[in-house]
Amino acid sequence: MVRLASLTLVVSCSFAAGTNPGPANVVIVANANSALSKNIAEYYAIKRGIPRNQVCYIRTATTEWIPRSRYESEIESPVAHCLQTNNLVESTLYLVTTSEVPLVIEGARQGEMNTDIAAVDSELTLLYQVVKGRKHQFKGPLDNPYFRSIVNMSHPRFPMYLVTRLSAYDFNEVKGMIDRALIAKNTGNFVIDMKGDSDDEGNSWLRDTMIILPTPRTVFDDSRKVLTGLNNVIGYASWGSNDKSRTQRFLKFHWLPGAIATEFVSTNARTMARPPDSWNIGSWKDDMKTWWAGAPQSMSADYIHEGATGVSGHVWEPYLALCPRPQYILPAYYNGSNLAESFYRGIPALSWQNIVLGDPLCSLGHP
């Protein structure tokens, strides 16, 4: 049954005030070997007024997977050099990668949480520590120091960068994401869709999200039904294709400018390549007949395609414990934190499988 949340607001959602971050705190990472990457970087820099010396051009493969040795020599090292030579190490809070900057660092595909496969963006969060001469392990996840923070991002208090990606199925969809971020307003509904008849921990997180968010603006469902066709959506959290009741690729929501989404799905950011229009989410058990790019699961970029402004995703198996926590993301976003800070408040680990699609500076403003 769909219902407006009837519980009262029992958890404080206040976040400490501080200097509002802006274009001076953003560095764009663009691949000089890709016309698409350069076009996105130029468009975003113009729209946000980001100075030229805050656009780092690297030269690397346009493939989505890259060996760690090439990540270090072609991405990590040149971005570090750009930050250091332009005196941007401390002032930069947000790194923004672009389409056709590689997506995944190759590694061993066994060992569960000991794998050294990682999202390029998640590895780049640690670049602040790298330029300070600090080393870290490659296998397994590392704690995110910004996880569950209630204050604005700053250095050196949080020794990391918040990394988001401007990427979607094509340039026009990225352009739409950027344009919508610029006109975001604090209006519309937060939609929380639990998986019916389940005691999974993720359902507890979704229920907590519903309790924390303002009741009049929260649509909550704990039945087996999948919520579709809703209007005026500004935030969304669910199990995505891991809800067995979901059989359709698109939710057919009307997403408001600035809307963000998160879901508990292992491989939803496995590629930014557009599936055929005929493709639909499927099953792991059908001999790959319903798979796209190595999996049958829902796609993060589909939310951008449908009109969302930001979404989290995973390039490889994160395990539920290290999926983004909506009970930290959506309340922070509602209370005026920007997109990057909201998502990273809810991401437990770095050097792991998580990515965030969106303009880091996108903000709804205070309610």
Write the layout of secondary structure elements.
Elements: E1 2-4, E2 26-31, H1 35-48, E3 55-58, E4 65-66, H2 68-85, E5 94-98, E6 104-105, E7 118-119, H3 120-124, H4 127-131, E8 142-143, E9 162-166, H5 171-182, E10 189-193, H6 201-212, E11 218-221, E12 233-238, E13 255-263, H7 300-306, E14 310-314, H8 326-334, H9 339-345, E15 349-350, E16 354-357
Parallel strand pairs: 2-3, 2-5, 4-6, 5-9, 10-11, 10-12, 12-13, 13-14
Antiparallel strand pairs: 1-11, 6-7, 8-15, 14-16
Helix pairs in contact: 1-5, 6-8, 8-9
What can you see in these coordinates?
This protein is of the alpha/beta class and 367 residues long. It has 2 domains: 2-15 and 174-357, no CATH class; 23-168, no CATH class. It is 24% helix and 18% strand. It contains 9 helices and 16 strands. It has helices at residues 35-48, 68-85, 120-124, 127-131, 171-182, 201-212, 300-306, 326-334, 339-345; strands at 2-4, 26-31, 55-58, 65-66, 94-98, 104-105, 118-119, 142-143, 162-166, 189-193, 218-221, 233-238, 255-263, 310-314, 349-350, 354-357. It has a 7-stranded mixed β-sheet with strand order 1-11-10-12-13-14-16, sandwiched between helices. It has a 4-stranded parallel β-sheet with strand order 3-2-5-9, sandwiched between helices. Helix 1 (35-48) runs parallel beside helix 5 and helix 8 packs antiparallel against helix 9. The two termini are 28 Å apart. The model is unreliable at 1-18 (pLDDT under 50).
